[in-house]
Amino acid sequence: MHRYGSLVLLLCAVALGACDKNGRQDITAPASGANVKFFHFGVTAPGVNFYANTQKMTAISSTACLPPNDTTAVCRTTGTESTTGTAYGAAGSGGLYNEVTPGQATLSGKIAAATDKDLAISTVSATLDDGKFYSYYISGIYDATAKKVDAFVVEDPIPTSIDPTQAYVRFVNAVSNSQPMTLYAKSTTTGNEVAVGSTVAYKAAGTFLALPGGVYDLNTRTAGSSTNVVTRTAVSFVAGRVYTVASRGDLVSTVTANKPALDNTANR
């Protein structure tokens, strides 16, 4: 598990410059704790920073400290935080796990913008076990009046025995106005289609299924129906890796950006 913290730090420092100093992504101490991914799938919700209890876990660095403007005391110490946060459709920390102290935790997404700064729009209490992996999803459709949106937590029971010829895939349903759906994966090479587990209700996760590594067209369908609800083509599943495919969006929206979509994120 130590390598997850290392990957997060490397991604933040080199690729994204995107993690706040206060996030628990420390590689100087022995690795321990629970591990949590954070996803912003709340339709029309503002960008957020993710928290575990009072600890900020994710944030985005402002470009204000890019050279030649990197000589100020703030830039040399804490840096300047962007007000964009993690936007809809994205994952905090580049989709990597964040280390969280085990036990009872309150996970939340708080507004990153200057207006309503740090207002929690989603909150879930969960018991996080040491050494286990979890994903926290902001989900559903944002209520701009109440300034609230749904959220849920699922465990990520990553397979411990990995066949190097297989990829492992599961489905999470984060579409609040959907019926329970099944994810189907159709190989673009053989044309064979398989169900990735059984039907998955809103705020739930299916089990990991082994698939030969390759490229797949993905579709979700409700029970007893041959009509595709959400579709994504040409998704690569690399053998030896573990993936979560999650649905997000609003089934009745006419806005392209808010229509249902499938997200594919590697768990390992």
Structural commentary:
With 268 residues, the protein is mostly beta strands. The chain folds into two domains: 1-156, no CATH class; 159-268, Immunoglobulin-like. Helices cover 7% and strands 43% of the residues. The chain has two helices and 18 strands. The protein has helices at 2-16, 73-76, and strands spanning 34-40, 48-52, 55-56, 90-91, 98-100, 103-111, 120-128, 133-143, 148-155, 166-173, 181-187, 193-200, 204-205, 209-212, 214-222, 230-237, 242-248, 261-266. The strands form four sheets. Strands 1, 4, 5, 8 and 9 form a five-stranded mixed sheet that branches. Strands 10, 13, 14, 17 and 18 form a five-stranded mixed sheet that branches. The chain has a four-stranded antiparallel sheet with strand order 3-2-6-7, with no helix packed on it. Strand 8 and strand 9 (148-155) form a beta hairpin. The chain is globular, with a radius of gyration of 19 Å. The model is unreliable at 1-30 (pLDDT under 50).
Helix-strand topology string? HEEEHEEEEEEEEEEEEEEE
Give me the secondary-structure category: mainly beta
SS strand fraction? 35-45%
- Rg calculated over all Cα atoms: 19 Å
Described by strand count, sense and barrel closure, the largest sheet is:
5 strands, mixed
